[in-house]
Amino acid sequence: MRRDDRDDPFDDIFREIERMMEEMTGGDVNISADAGFGEDAHFTVHEEPDHLRVIGDLPGIEQDDIDIKCDGRTLTVTARSDHRSYEERLDLPARVDEHTATASFNNGILEVTLERVDDSADINVR
Fold first, then answer.
1. Which CATH number does the domain 42-116 belong to among 2.60.40.790, 3.30.1050.10, 3.40.50.300, 3.90.1150.10?
2. What is the pTM of this model?
């Protein structure tokens, strides 16, 4: 016997969820088993007086599969595994010195610490 979508016991449930999501959002919603880390990954930004700490949950990712970039205003975290890829762009609540950033990764938890910098520099008039 050949297995197809009609044999999937959850097909009706997923079809109904997609229909309700389309109705709520007015758009096309596709639910897939390989939807990436969007539902699993979660990032929070903690503001301290002299630095920002960004903490993210990246389940199923190895340390070597993480790439972090910062331009002083936006932190971008990219993670790739054999089956998934994920990218998160976080607009930081304060300007930071990206050159002094440190990061650690332990048991699927990423922590990035960034030093704050003044929003503007003093300019001397000659």
1. 2.60.40.790
2. 0.63
